Amino acid sequence: MKNDIALLWLRVSLGGIMLFSHGLPKLLSFSEKAATWADPIGVGPQASLALAIFAEVFCSAAVIFGVMTRWAAIPLVITMLVAAGIVHADDPWQKKELAVLMGIGFSTLMIAGGGAFSVDRMRGQAPT
Question: Burial level of 106, CB count in 10 A (0-12/13-18/19+)?
Fold first, then answer.
């Protein structure tokens, strides 16, 4: 029971921070940011921004509710790896630290799953 409460807390807090502090601002300013967004993986700035928005908005919302938590965490882990390891590669640790911490949290959810207090569990689609 304690572990399930901890997973709920981790899902809601990390997912909420990512969604409201990072994802929604990017989504709401897509047209202003798209032309000048970094292209760390070589798919173009608009596609890179769209991938970040997909992870930070849609996958974060799925994590918050515990919908396909393990799968939803994968794009978030990848996004945080790209942010820390490529986008901020030459920056000081303080610039990378948030991405690393978020990546650790989302990788924990990728391994552990959403727990008992998740939509997946309520629908009988997650292991007990």
Answer: buried
